[in-house]
Amino acid sequence: MRNTYLLQPYEVGAKNAKSLALVIPSAIVKKYQINPSTGFALKYDESKIVLQFVERNKKTMPDETSFKPESSSIDYQRRH
Fold it and tell me: What does the alpha-carbon distance between residue 67 and residue 8 come to, in Å, rounded to a whole number?
Protein backbone atom coordinates (compact mmCIF):
# COMPACT_ATOMS: atom_id res chain seq x y z
CA MET A 1 0.00 0.00 0.00
CA ARG A 2 1.18 3.50 -0.75
CA ASN A 3 0.24 4.88 2.65
CA THR A 4 1.94 2.14 4.65
CA TYR A 5 5.49 2.25 6.04
CA LEU A 6 7.32 -0.64 7.67
CA LEU A 7 8.94 0.71 10.83
CA GLN A 8 11.43 -1.17 12.96
CA PRO A 9 11.83 -0.03 16.57
CA TYR A 10 15.22 0.31 18.19
CA GLU A 11 16.21 0.23 21.85
CA VAL A 12 16.93 3.40 23.81
CA GLY A 13 17.48 4.06 27.49
CA ALA A 14 19.46 2.69 30.39
CA LYS A 15 20.70 -0.88 30.55
CA ASN A 16 17.98 -1.98 32.98
CA ALA A 17 15.14 0.22 31.63
CA LYS A 18 15.01 -0.17 27.86
CA SER A 19 12.27 1.49 25.81
CA LEU A 20 11.66 1.24 22.08
CA ALA A 21 11.71 4.22 19.71
CA LEU A 22 10.46 4.61 16.14
CA VAL A 23 11.70 6.95 13.44
CA ILE A 24 8.91 8.71 11.54
CA PRO A 25 9.75 8.82 7.81
CA SER A 26 10.69 12.30 6.53
CA ALA A 27 7.86 12.30 3.96
CA ILE A 28 5.34 12.02 6.81
CA VAL A 29 7.17 14.61 8.92
CA LYS A 30 7.03 17.11 6.05
CA LYS A 31 3.46 16.33 4.98
CA TYR A 32 2.03 16.77 8.49
CA GLN A 33 4.55 19.38 9.72
CA ILE A 34 5.63 17.22 12.66
CA ASN A 35 8.23 18.67 15.01
CA PRO A 36 9.58 17.80 18.48
CA SER A 37 6.66 19.59 20.17
CA THR A 38 3.99 17.59 18.28
CA GLY A 39 1.72 15.59 20.58
CA PHE A 40 0.62 12.02 19.90
CA ALA A 41 -1.69 9.57 21.61
CA LEU A 42 -0.91 5.87 21.48
CA LYS A 43 -4.06 3.73 21.60
CA TYR A 44 -4.06 -0.04 21.51
CA ASP A 45 -6.21 -3.11 21.87
CA GLU A 46 -5.59 -6.82 21.28
CA SER A 47 -5.40 -6.44 17.48
CA LYS A 48 -3.82 -3.07 16.70
CA ILE A 49 -1.80 -0.07 17.83
CA VAL A 50 -2.85 3.39 16.61
CA LEU A 51 -0.76 6.55 16.83
CA GLN A 52 -2.87 9.75 16.59
CA PHE A 53 -2.18 13.47 16.57
CA VAL A 54 -3.39 15.26 19.68
CA GLU A 55 -4.51 18.86 19.62
CA ARG A 56 -2.50 19.86 22.65
CA ASN A 57 -4.34 23.13 23.23
CA LYS A 58 -7.71 21.30 23.30
CA LYS A 59 -6.34 18.17 25.01
CA THR A 60 -8.61 15.99 22.87
CA MET A 61 -8.00 13.43 20.17
CA PRO A 62 -9.86 13.50 16.85
CA ASP A 63 -12.45 11.02 18.20
CA GLU A 64 -13.14 13.50 21.06
CA THR A 65 -11.58 11.28 23.73
CA SER A 66 -10.24 13.61 26.39
CA PHE A 67 -7.16 13.01 28.47
CA LYS A 68 -4.74 14.76 30.75
CA PRO A 69 -1.13 14.17 29.68
CA GLU A 70 1.11 13.22 32.58
CA SER A 71 4.33 13.85 30.68
CA SER A 72 5.65 14.46 27.19
CA SER A 73 5.85 10.72 26.50
CA ILE A 74 3.49 7.78 26.68
CA ASP A 75 4.75 4.38 27.85
CA TYR A 76 3.37 1.14 26.43
CA GLN A 77 3.79 -2.20 28.14
CA ARG A 78 2.49 -5.36 26.50
CA ARG A 79 0.12 -7.34 28.70
CA HIS A 80 1.00 -11.03 29.14
Answer: 28
pLDDT in tens, 15-64: 888 999 999 999 988 988 888 888 888 889 999 888 887 766 655 555 55
What SS3 state is found at 73?
A: coil
- What is the model's pTM? 0.57
* Long-range residue pairs from 19-25, CB within 8 A, at least 24 positions apart, any chain: 19/75
Report CA-CA distances (Å) from 75 to 26, 67, 69: 24, 15, 12
Tell me the residue type at 56: R
Q: How far apart are CA 10 and CA 18, in angstroms?
A: 10
